Amino acid sequence: MLVAPLIVLGLLLLWSWWRWSDRPEDPLTALFGMAFESVLFAVVLWQFSRNFGPIIDGLGIKLQLTFQTAPAAQILTFIGAGIYEEVLFRLGLFGGLVLLLRVVGLPGVAALPLAAFAAALAFAAAHHVGPYGEPMRADYFVFRTIAGLFFTSLFVFRGFGIAVGAHAGYDILVGVVVS
């Protein structure tokens, strides 16, 4: 049960040590800025999720979106899910696919969107497999694919920390604050 968190913690500590010279001069200001930016992106995605059903309904596709209420004790779970999913799908899968596609000679202009789309599809599919997976629903799958592309864009343009913060913030908004 502790192996996965220890591996992630070890990798993040190793990464921090390797990139020590890139640290901000004022880490407290950077932390507050990242927190604000993460909350902003979480609210953007949450607002999109609230309007996703009517947008798709307007296109003639029937949706039945339901939201489960989660207790406040689940906040730690949502933060952990944001961290693990970003490590797995953005750092690992997206980063690995970009590297692989570049190694086989694909230019970056093609490798980035292909890797982003593949990682987003895997992200969406992962929510529907295994004993805790939800039953497959096209509307959930499409939304999660779009969310995966959103988180990948944040990862590419704003960095890992913002992607994690926005992901965890969105999960908390949907699971605890709003439901």
Describe this structure in words.
With 179 residues, this protein is an all-alpha fold. It is 75% helix and 0% strand. The protein has helices at 3-18, 27-58, 75-103, 108-126, 138-157, 160-177. Helix 3 (75-103) runs antiparallel to helix 4 (108-126).
Topology:
Elements: H1 3-18, H2 27-58, H3 75-103, H4 108-126, H5 138-157, H6 160-177
Helix pairs in contact: 2-5, 2-6, 3-4, 3-5, 3-6, 4-5, 5-6
Would you kindly provide a brief summary of this structure?
Helices cover about 75% and strands about 0% of the residues. The chain has 6 helices and no strands.
Mean pLDDT: 85
Annotation field: number of helices: 6
What fraction of the residues are assigned to beta strands by DSSP? under 5%
DSSP helix fraction: over 70%
Oligomer: single chain
The whole-angstrom Rg is 17 Å
Q: In terms of structural class, how would the helical and strand content be classed? A: mainly alpha
Q: How many strand segments?
A: 0
Shape: globular
Largest sheet: none
Stretches with pLDDT under 50, minimum 5 residues: none
Helices and strands, in order, run as: HHHHHH
Give the CA-CA distance, first to last residue.
29 Å
